[in-house]
């Protein structure tokens, strides 16, 4: 009995296979400061300038829009008009990625933070927290975000008690 040998074609790695279809990720930037003091308003300008430059210098990203809430606490999203616009635009598919300075800039309420992050995941949108170097599509991301959101919430509570 004669053995039949089948020659198996070797294909390039998957990354290379889809390279011609690669698209830049559309980025929204979210910035927030909790008071309207001159120092805080300078901080929001600095956040805006830094992140727009950061996105424009990366060949894999394209800047779409900046959302900035000035003089508004992060403990509740109800008063954050720009945050609400961002969530609405996310649902409409306006961007693929949100970049923000830190978890405490995104939200200081653990429940709100997790609800929004899970909703954004459903829309196929990742949130990247630069200070903590955590992305919500990372396998350990949600655990770390839960932990750090709880710390941000407690910090906010402590600050308000000391005022």
Query: Please, what is the CATH homologous superfamily?
Result: Resolvase, N-terminal catalytic domain
Helix content: 40-55%
Question: Mean pLDDT, as a whole number?
Answer: 80
Radius of gyration (CA) equals: 20 Å
CATH topology: Rossmann fold
How large a portion of the residues is in β-strands, by DSSP E? 15-25%
Low-pLDDT segments:
13-20
Number-wise, the strands total 5
**Largest sheet report:** 5 strands, mixed
Count of the domains:
1
CATH architectural group: 3-Layer(aba) Sandwich
Account of the 3D structure:
The protein has helices spanning 14-17, 38-56, 81-91, 103-106, 110-122, 141-162; strands at residues 25-33, 61-70, 97-100, 126-129, 134-135. The protein has a single domain (30-162), classed as Rossmann fold (3-Layer(aba) Sandwich), CATH 3.40.50.1390. Residues 13-20 have low confidence and may be disordered. The chain is elongated and about 85 Å long. Strand 1, helix 2 and strand 2 form a beta-alpha-beta unit. A 5-stranded mixed β-sheet has the order 2-1-3-4-5, sandwiched between helices. With 163 residues, it is an alpha/beta fold. The longest helix is centred in the C-terminal third of the chain and has 22 residues, at 141-162.
List keywords for this structure.
5-stranded mixed β-sheet, alpha/beta, 45% helix, Rossmann fold, 163 residues, 18% strand
Question: Brief overview, please?
Answer:
The chain is an alpha/beta fold.
What is the topology?
Layout: H1 14-17, E1 25-33, H2 38-56, E2 61-70, H3 81-91, E3 97-100, H4 103-106, H5 110-122, E4 126-129, E5 134-135, H6 141-162
Parallel strand pairs: 1-2, 1-3, 3-4
Antiparallel strand pairs: 4-5
């Amino acid at each position: 009995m004669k053995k039949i040998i089948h020659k198996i074609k070797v294909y390039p790695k998957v990354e290379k296979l889809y390279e011609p279809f690669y698209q830049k990720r559309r980025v929204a930037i979210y910035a927030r400061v909790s008071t309207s003091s001159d120092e805080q308003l300078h901080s929001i300008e600095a956040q805006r300038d830094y992140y727009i430059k950061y996105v424009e210098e990366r060949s894999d990203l394209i800047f779409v829009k900046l959302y900035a809430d000035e003089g508004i606490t992060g403990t509740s999203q109800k008063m954050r008009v720009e945050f609400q616009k961002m969530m609405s635009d996310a649902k409409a598919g306006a961007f693929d990625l949100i970049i923000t300075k830190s978890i405490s800039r995104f939200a200081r309420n653990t429940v709100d933070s997790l609800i929004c992050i899970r909703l954004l995941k459903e829309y196929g949108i990742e949130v990247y927290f630069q200070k903590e170097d955590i992305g919500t599509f990372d396998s350990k991301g949600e655990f770390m975000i839960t932990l750090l959101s709880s710390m941000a919430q407690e910090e906010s509570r402590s600050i308000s008690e000391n005022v």
